[in-house]
């Protein structure tokens, strides 16, 4: 029987009525849940909320949790417990964390059956202190017991993996203290996440921070932290990037018998001085140490760090070799052996400050000797070529040593402009005063090649030079050093030429001084042999036993050289020689007299009238 239109309309109208109870039930359930979200948290006391978290942290990690503020339960948007003014620490206080707020997200299923179990912990504005030299006391926990040699987790302790999760640090600060650091390493504006969800799974720490006010990104990955706790090695990768420099390393880390790491390393730094300054150190090395790049194998332990198969680039120079840093009783020790094809020390002079002022006087700018005794250094360097301004060395081997505030630079032997150089210089600092001692010797030195390399000189010498020098000075600036210079020197030249000065013409034309001055800078004077000695006291040198032999005359000279004021005053007497080899009588009883006077930059030859 077919239904009437009225009955069909009634059925259609009646369908929504059957859905109303379902909608009403859903609405009622939603209201109940919403009411529960606001009312249920008020049922639990602070102790009922904080005690389970305190127990979970203690039983899992061995760390104690103390809360000085209230605890609150939130069901929306995700179930969580929030606690104010918390402190987390181990029994030995090697790790101590204070935070404004702790927020722990809860796992849903344990909550359904009436148990609080956190999956994620967030610490707002944490203040963290870590003593890297002290082992945390975590023995009364599965993690602590796993760290004991040969330890194995019991069956019930293996459940620890279900209770691990992530820890998030927001707007935090940290201080890492160690006897290896001159001062604590400080981190600010920390925003990082530690993700270790299962005991036998990898752990990752990543995020951003500021290291000594330098923004940086950090990522650390440990393949088997559980094995590391048990004393077995684990693979590790670390990446640090900042405007100051970058660090990447991959290798193996172990905690037994002591914490140590071995792996490949690649690093760069805009300034090596600024980088090591983060750890509170300075290097007493006379170089700017800019644009550093290093690749090699690193071995790091509690008191030492060594680098082998090293390729180092700094100040535009490329080195290969080994380096090691060791923590001493009072200060660190840096040692190593490096080799390079070319060592350019030109920047060294630029970083040391100007040698001369605009008026061509020695610079009076005070020395900055801060940190000269902060690190003991023992470096051995060999270089196929060394360039220092217009001075060049070949096949040079030298050592740089620093100890107890003194620095020693020794060059056992080096080739230079066809000759051999040996030198040793020592410097000691007291406040900003520098005490200098040095001795050097040179043989078969080609002055012509040296003059060609320094073409800016107006008066040039050629010939083969041999000489020795022993010098001492003390002062707070270059000007003070040269004004307080003491010592002796002895110089011999053979088979050379004085370019820019014709002494024989000057000798013949001594009655025309103005013409001689105008002609100064032209001509040349060949000579067979030249010799003089210098005795220096307080920056003034007396020239002794000066003798210049040419084919036509013998010149005896003496006088003074003022190193402090950069002035020269030489008096020369000449005896003209006959072709037969005898000495011709001169119209003047004492022979012809010549003066060489003026500043080192503007010398004048003045004949006697």
Structural write-up:
With 609 residues, this protein is an alpha+beta fold. Among the domains are: 44-222, no CATH class; 485-607, no CATH class. Helix content is 18%, strand content 51%. It has a 30-stranded mixed beta sheet that branches. It starts with a helix and ends with a strand.
Oligomeric description of these chains:
single chain
The poorly predicted ranges are 1-14, 32-46, 155-159, 511-520, 578-589
Give the fraction of residues assigned to helices: 10-25%
How many beta strands in the DSSP annotation? 30
Class by alpha and beta content: alpha+beta
Provide a brief overview of the structure.
Among the domains are: 44-222, no CATH class; 485-607, no CATH class. The relative contact order is 0.04.
Looking at this protein, list some descriptive labels.
609 residues; alpha+beta; 11 helices; 30 strands
How are the secondary structure elements laid out?
Elements: H1 5-43, H2 46-61, E1 64-67, E2 71-74, E3 80-89, E4 95-106, H3 108-112, E5 118-124, E6 127-131, H4 142-146, E7 165-177, E8 185-196, E9 203-211, E10 214-222, H5 225-229, E11 234-242, E12 245-254, E13 260-271, H6 272-277, E14 290-300, E15 304-314, E16 317-327, E17 332-344, H7 346-351, E18 376-388, E19 391-403, E20 406-416, E21 419-430, E22 433-446, H8 447-453, E23 460-475, H9 478-483, E24 486-499, H10 503-508, H11 513-519, E25 524-537, E26 540-549, E27 553-562, E28 567-576, E29 592-599, E30 602-607
């Amino acid at each position: 029987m077919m239904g009437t239109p009225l009955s069909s309309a009634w059925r259609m109208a009646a369908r929504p009525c059957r859905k109303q109870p379902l909608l009403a039930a859903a609405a009622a359930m939603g209201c109940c849940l919403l009411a529960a979200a606001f009312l249920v948290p008020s049922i639990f006391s602070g102790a009922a909320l904080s005690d389970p978290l305190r127990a979970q942290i203690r039983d899992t990690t061995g760390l104690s949790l103390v809360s000085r503020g209230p605890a609150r339960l939130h069901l929306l948007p995700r179930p969580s417990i929030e606690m104010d003014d918390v402190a987390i620490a181990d029994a030995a206080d090697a790790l101590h964390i204070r935070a404004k707020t702790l927020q722990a997200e809860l796992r849903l299923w344990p909550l359904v059956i009436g148990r609080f179990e956190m999956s994620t912990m967030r610490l707002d504005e944490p203040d963290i202190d870590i003593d890297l030299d002290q082992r945390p006391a975590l023995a009364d926990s599965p993690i602590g017991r796993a760290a004991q040699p040969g330890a194995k987790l019991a069956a019930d302790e293996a459940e620890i993996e279900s209770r691990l999760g992530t820890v998030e640090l927001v707007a935090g600060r940290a201080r890492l203290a160690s006897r290896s650091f001159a001062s604590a390493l400080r981190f600010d504006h920390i925003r990082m996440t530690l993700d270790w969800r299962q005991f036998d799974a990898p752990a990752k720490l990543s995020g951003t921070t500021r290291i000594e006010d330098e923004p940086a990104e950090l990522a650390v990955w440990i393949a088997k932290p559980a094995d590391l706790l048990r004393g077995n090695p684990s693979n590790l990768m670390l990446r640090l990037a900042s405007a100051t420099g970058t660090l990447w390393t991959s290798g193996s880390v172990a905690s037994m018998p002591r914490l140590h790491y071995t792996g490949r390393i690649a690093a760069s730094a805009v300034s090596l001085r600024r980088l090591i300054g983060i750890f509170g150190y300075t290097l007493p090395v006379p170089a700017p140490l800019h644009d550093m790049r290093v690749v090699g194998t690193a071995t790091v332990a509690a008191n030492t760090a060594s680098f082998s198969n090293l390729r180092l680039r700094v100040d535009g120079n490329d080195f290969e070799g080994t380096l090691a840093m060791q923590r001493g009783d009072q200060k660190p020790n840096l040692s190593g052996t490096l080799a390079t094809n070319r060592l350019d020390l030109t920047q060294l002079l630029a970083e040391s400050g100007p040698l001369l002022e605009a008026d061509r006087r020695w610079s009076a700018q005070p020395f900055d000797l801060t940190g000269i005794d902060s690190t003991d250094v023992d470096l051995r360097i060999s270089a196929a070529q060394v360039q220092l301004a217009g001075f060049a060395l070949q096949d040079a081997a030298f050592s740089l040593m620093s100890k107890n505030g003194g620095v020693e630079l020794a060059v056992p032997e080096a080739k230079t402009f066809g000759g051999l150089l040996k030198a040793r210089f020592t410097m000691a600092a007291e406040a900003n005063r520098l005490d200098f001692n040095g001795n050097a010797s040179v043989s078969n030195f080609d002055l012509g090649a040296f003059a060609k390399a320094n073409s800016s000189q107006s008066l040039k010498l050629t010939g083969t030079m041999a000489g020795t020098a022993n010098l001492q000075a003390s002062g707070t600036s270059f000007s003070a050093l040269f004004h307080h210079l003491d010592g002796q020197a002895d110089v011999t030249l053979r088979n050379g030429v004085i370019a820019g000065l014709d002494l024989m013409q000057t000798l013949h034309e001594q009655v025309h001084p103005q013409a001689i001055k105008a002609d100064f800078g032209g001509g040349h004077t060949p000579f067979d042999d030249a010799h003089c000695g210098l005795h220096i006291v307080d920056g003034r040198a007396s020239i002794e036993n000066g003798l210049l032999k040419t084919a036509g005359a013998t010149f005896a000279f003496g006088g003074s050289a003022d190193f402090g004021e950069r002035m020269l005053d030489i008096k020369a007497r000449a005896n003209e020689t006959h072709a037969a080899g005898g000495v011709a009588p001169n119209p003047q009883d004492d022979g012809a007299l010549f003066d060489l006077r003026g500043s080192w930059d503007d010398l004048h030859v003045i004949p006697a009238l």
